[in-house]
Amino acid sequence: MHRIKEIAVRTNGLQLPYGRDLLSEVLRGQMRDFITKIAFEEMAAAIGAGSYERSAVRRGYRHGSEHRELTTSFGKTRFLMPRAKLFSASGRKVEWESTMIPRYARRCVEVDAALMGIYFGGVNTRKVKQALRPMLKKSPLSKSSISRLVVRVKEYFEAWRTRSLAGEVVPYLYLDGICVRVRCGSHIDSLPVLAAVGVRPNGEKVLLALEMCGGESTAAWKGLVEDLSGRGLHAPRLAIIDGNPGLARALAETWPKTNRQRCTVHKLRNLLAHAPKRI
What we know:
The protein is an alpha/beta fold. It has helices at 2-11, 22-47, 109-120, 125-136, 143-161, 218-230, 245-254, 264-274, and strands at 60-72, 75-87, 93-95, 172-184, 187-199, 205-212, 238-241, 259-262. The protein is extended and about 75 Å long.
């Protein structure tokens, strides 16, 4: 039965949606040459001279090459990675490291971002592998790979969450709580997250803080506001908030001179909620 369907499809010149993608296969075959060319050009720029070129500004020399594997959106690609030695200021020779293809990198940032987006969206590791199998082809993707990515994201978020805000000038500050679906172990729950968005003098908005909490209590908001102040953020001229009394008290205690304004969007939503749908 399946054999008859295959013959019929091939005879009619049709292609099933999940069949072979000839364009992707051709691009995947050319990807090896593209990556190798990019790596050699970056190395030549770091050395300051081409192959066998005599130059007074030479900063190093070639040191062979090695085979590497990198997973891109076209799947796993095996390419030739050049090696080089650079002259340091102290006169020692150091190994050249590519900035575009970092050492020990096995996947592109684009692939890691796709993995994290699917995982944090509530899809477990096994289903992530199934969902990305057409794109990643035979690329290795284990549970430990996802775990290592999660650790990297946590480290990045922790560094962002504790960064200094002393250089930020935000005359206007938006404070609000949102509910997002968050993975907690093997469960997906909807949890409140406190958010702080500042507005710079030129009108540019910048995300300052995100804090997960059990609810929008006075203690929770006071912890967020005190954290902003402790990281060097000066008291804003105006804080735009909703009608949460705990947030208003937290602002009054930490930044008593900051003016407060009720968010018009929240106010309009409250009015519409009490207005009749039909007149």
